[in-house]
Amino acid sequence: MTLGIRTLGTPPSGSPLTVSALGLGCMGMSEFYGTADEQTAVDTIHRALDLGVTFLDTADMYGPFTNEELLGKALTGRRDEVQLATKFGNERRPDGSWVGINGRPEYVHAACDASLSRLGVDHVDLYYQHRVDPDVPIEETVGAMAELVEAGKVRHLGLSEAAADTVRRAHDVHPITALQSEYSLFTRDLEDDVLPTLRELGIGLVAYSPLGRGLLTGAIGAGGSGLDEGDARRAGRFPRFEGDALEANLALVAQVRELAVAKGITPGQLALAWVLAQGDDVVPIPGTKRVRYLEENVAAADVELTADDLAAIDAAVPRDAVAGDRYADMSSVNR
């Protein structure tokens, strides 16, 4: 397995951060996707570092708070090996209840200090606003984030699920290194306005859920078989996993599987290779909490897709063929 590097943010307008070509999303190690086991998660993080996956992604809301604490434990003595990213803005209470989206400047500072404490570090390499607060001008939020850079607590700034105009306004205040948004064979809407804007401004794209929240691995079956009882994908939060929509989407997965088998790889590896092929400014961060899936994902970096392969994939999964919205509540994305 050979894992290269990619650069998020292009000079002169961007703020460049060099990361592993494939990152690791750590959310599921603590919440949302079934049962969690701390030692298994730590083992997976350590194996990721050994394989060259050094771009680690978390957020204060995951757990809530416990995912950052997990990374803090896992990175003891290895902080210098990683590019560490976390997020603020989806405010939750310790009991997990929801407060709301918060982009107020004073909260930006308080949230960052709390994240640094939980992670056990003196800075993070990339700090995102997790969701855009509709009640606070983006200029005010990013202005406060810029103060964190000046204080040495944060090296680079990012946004998540922001619209093209919002990204542009934020970038006018302080260079934005990366936008994190959902991007996969199953989610391509940002190709219309957002991705062209990122490339105009020299901003990288960090693709979360590059495996369609696991659908594209082929491990999820009819009726949600393959998912634990406590998995959020069974709870109505993600319409693509329900009823007729799930059936239609599994039919698309079957076509992905057929193409993957022809290349001697797994469906998930084909899906990740497709994301990696969309440009050197795109870095997928597939999430997993198990070493064997991590190793499978990393091997996707060695998959070469020809022009014919890419055309076949586009034909098998037409951009608008996926059934169902990606969230039951889409109000907080692309704004």
TrEMBL record:
Enzyme class label: oxidoreductase
Entry EC no(s): 1.1.1.-
Gene Ontology molecular functions: oxidoreductase activity
Protein name, entry field: Aldo/keto reductase
Annotated keywords: Oxidoreductase
Domain of life, per lineage: Bacteria
Pfam assignment, any one: Aldo_ket_red
Ranges where the NADP-dependent oxidoreductase domain occurs: 22-316
Keyword Oxidoreductase belongs to the record: yes
Species assigned in the record: Nocardioides taihuensis
